[in-house]
């Protein structure tokens, strides 16, 4: 691999360019007209404008990106997260053009993108799953009996869904058929497939996940993460390792995740997501994400392994060169997602010019940002400005370090979620790791006057 | 008697629910009060643009994928 094209923008493009430069790999940033002067464009060896500001005309434009690769002589493409990272069709085009796709095989992306097939793959690999239906639901059959077997409340999910979309809760038999029909219609409109399936609903669940990595011959996990602090199914703060998991359960989750990767001959970085039910002390497979995740730095912090470097090495055909026994886990890490949103005004997006961007420093602090002071946050893209990552020898110390780092962080000119983060880490329930995925909706006064 | 449809939020105006779908409404079509005539995206958050009045959509003042500011006129209903 001599020249890598990064088919993304913002903080993750900068993140990938940094490691590529360290490895001596030349970099090409593809940018929309709105991102001409972005840090990704500045840090990369070359940048190519691939289209107008709306992502549909630039960052999602397969042909424009492949043309940029051809023009610059890039021999590999890293998709980052979001955009085209889990688009099997694009991955196939990249490979057909004779380029290296930095990610799992298009077939693996397809398999994990189909939620009911992914669930079956998990079952085959011995991963615990929530009680539910196998494969797509036959709505002409006796779905009432199936629902009773699973037990109410249950959720109906779109097979092709993901990211918290295409999910509806059903509380009783009265709502059963109508909700299934609505869910099927929604799934067809949103995902082009009306396949749905049932799963048991867990009232107060935690979201835990395992980072897996493989080269096609050797598979390892890089520990687990907890992403339970969420707002409307979007992650807010993540930490590694997941606090308060019973040892046996943690081990089962890690091992079966590696087994799923091995079973599907997975190559590269992947994340196996689980729902943890603290009441029943059970874990259950949700889905596998076939890309680098936003929260990958906390796994890097506790293992000392650069996940992007591993991705590039393996994509270039290198072998892992180590086994599970060589992976060491140390300390505890948190990641705070800093978004250009106003938490006190219903999280209204806040585009505009960044007047001040003072990021934290010092021991155990990492800042992955796509912006500098003086730059303008455009209204066209995701509101994520960057991430603050902190780590220390244990969770309490890491929390104290987080408080200190958040105090140092100053962003002016636009509204950000920094003030909210300061409030969140001061919550006793968070310090005690008692939070769950819908916890934030239960805290009065957290989001200012409107909530 | 004509009424104007105003952008409720700033962002990118889309005339279609998805790139491969037909537009919500074409100039010359009849619209009902409350009918969606487009969506505005700002940082991946979507806000529906609805016609408050019933009538015939005379013209769009913003093209597909055009940028709008809060209070900008999007379309005129007769």
Automatic annotation (TrEMBL), chain A:
Keyword ATP-binding in annotation:
yes
> Which stretch is the leader sequence?
none
> Keywords, A to Z?
ATP-binding, Biotin, Ligase, Nucleotide-binding
Q: What is this enzyme's EC?
A: 6.3.4.14
Domain of life (superkingdom):
Bacteria
Looking up Pfam families in the UniProt record yields: Biotin_carb_C (PF02785), Biotin_carb_N (PF00289), CPSase_L_D2 (PF02786)
Class of enzymatic activity (EC top level): ligase
Catalysed reaction, written as an equation: N(6)-biotinyl-L-lysyl-[protein] + hydrogencarbonate + ATP = N(6)-carboxybiotinyl-L-lysyl-[protein] + ADP + phosphate + H(+)
Instruction: Specify the ATP-grasp domain's residue ranges.
Output: 119-316
Q: Name one GO molecular function term.
A: ATP binding
Do you know which InterPro entries this protein is assigned to?
ACC_Biotin_Carboxylase, ATP-grasp, BC-like_N, Biotin_carboxylation_dom, Biotin_COase_C, CPAse_ATP-bd, PreATP-grasp_dom_sf, Rudment_hybrid_motif
Record-annotated Biotin carboxylation domain positions: 1-445
The entry's function note states: This protein is a component of the acetyl coenzyme A carboxylase complex; first, biotin carboxylase catalyzes the carboxylation of the carrier protein and then the transcarboxylase transfers the carboxyl group to form malonyl-CoA.
Q: What is this protein called?
A: biotin carboxylase
Automatic annotation (TrEMBL), chain B:
Gene3D superfamilies noted in UniProt: 2.40.50.100
Spell out the PROSITE patterns in the cross-references: BIOTINYL_LIPOYL
Keyword field:
Biotin, Fatty acid biosynthesis, Fatty acid metabolism, Lipid biosynthesis, Lipid metabolism
Q: Which spans are transmembrane here?
A: none
Keyword Lipid metabolism on this protein? yes
Q: A Gene Ontology CC term for this entry?
A: acetyl-CoA carboxylase complex
The reply to whether Transferase figures as a keyword in the UniProt entry is no
- Pfam families attached to this UniProt entry: Biotin_lipoyl
Q: Which domain of life is it from?
A: Bacteria
Pathway, per record: Lipid metabolism; fatty acid biosynthesis
Q: Where is the Lipoyl-binding domain?
A: 1-78
Q: Which InterPro entries match?
A: AcCoA_biotinCC (IPR001249), Biotin_lipoyl (IPR000089), Single_hybrid_motif (IPR011053)
Could you tell me what this protein does?
Answer: This protein is a component of the acetyl coenzyme A carboxylase complex; first, biotin carboxylase catalyzes the carboxylation of the carrier protein and then the transcarboxylase transfers the carboxyl group to form malonyl-CoA.
Q: What is this protein called?
A: Biotin carboxyl carrier protein of acetyl-CoA carboxylase
Organism classification, top ranks?
Bacteria, Bacillati, Actinomycetota, Actinomycetes, Micrococcales
């Amino acid at each position: 691999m001599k020249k890598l094209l990064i088919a993304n923008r913002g903080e993750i493009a900068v993140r990938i360019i940094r490691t590529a430069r360290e490895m001596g790999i030349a970099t090409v940033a593809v940018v929309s007209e709105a991102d001409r002067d972005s840090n990704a464009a500045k840090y990369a060896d070359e940048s190519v404008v691939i289209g107008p500001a709306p992502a549909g005309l630039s960052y999602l434009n397969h042909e424009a990106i492949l043309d940029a690769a051809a023009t610059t002589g890039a021999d590999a493409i890293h998709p980052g997260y979001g955009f085209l990272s889990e688009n099997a069709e694009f991955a196939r085009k990249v490979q057909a053009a004779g380029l290296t796709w930095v990610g799992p095989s298009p077939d693996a992306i397809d398999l994990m993108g189909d939620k009911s097939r992914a669930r079956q793959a998990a079952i085959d690999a011995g991963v615990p799953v929530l009680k539910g239906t196998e494969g797509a639901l036959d709505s002409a059959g006796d779905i009432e009996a199936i629902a009773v077997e699973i037990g109410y409340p249950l959720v109906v999910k779109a097979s092709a869904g993901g990211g918290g979309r295409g999910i509806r809760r059903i509380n009783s038999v009265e709502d059963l058929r109508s909700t299934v029909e609505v869910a099927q219609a929604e799934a067809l409109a949103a995902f082009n497939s009306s396949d749905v399936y049932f799963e048991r609903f867990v009232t107060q669940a935690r979201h835990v996940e395992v980072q897996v990595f493989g080269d096609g011959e050797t598979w390892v996990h890089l520990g687990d993460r907890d992403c339970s602090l969420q707002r409307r199914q979007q992650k807010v703060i993540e930490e590694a390792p997941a606090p308060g998991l019973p040892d046996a359960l943690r081990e089962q989750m890690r091992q079966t995740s590696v087994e799923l990767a091995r079973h599907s001959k997975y190559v590269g970085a992947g994340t196996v997501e689980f729902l943890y039910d603290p009441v029943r002390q059970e874990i259950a497979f949700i889905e596998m994400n076939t890309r680098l995740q936003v929260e990958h730095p906390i796994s890097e912090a506790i293992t000392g392994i650069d996940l992007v470097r591993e991705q590039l090495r393996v994509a270039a055909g290198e072998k892992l060169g180590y086994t599970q026994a060589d992976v060491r886990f140390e300390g505890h890490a948190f990641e705070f997602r800093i978004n250009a949103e106003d938490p006190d005004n219903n999280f209204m997006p806040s585009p505009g010019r960044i007047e001040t961007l003072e990021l934290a420093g010092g021991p155990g602090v990492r800042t992955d940002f796509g912006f500098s002071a003086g730059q303008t946050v455009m209204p066209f893209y995701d509101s994520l400005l960057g991430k603050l990552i902190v780590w220390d020898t244990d969770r309490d110390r890491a929390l104290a370090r987080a408080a200190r780092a958040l105090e140092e962080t100053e962003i002016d000119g636009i509204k950000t979620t920094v003030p909210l983060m300061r409030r969140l880490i001061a919550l006793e329930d968070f310090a005690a790791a008692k939070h769950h995925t819908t916890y934030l909706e239960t805290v009065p006064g957290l989001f200012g006057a409107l909530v | 008697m004509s009424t104007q449809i105003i952008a409720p939020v700033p962002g990118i105006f889309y005339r279609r629910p998805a790139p491969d779908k037909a537009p919500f409404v074409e100039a010359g079509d009849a619209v009902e009060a409350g009918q969606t005539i487009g969506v505005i995206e700002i940082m991946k958050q979507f806000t529906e643009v609805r016609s408050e009045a019933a009538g015939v959509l005379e013209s769009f003042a913003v093209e597909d994928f055009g940028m709008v500011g809060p209070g900008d006129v999007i379309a005129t209903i007769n």
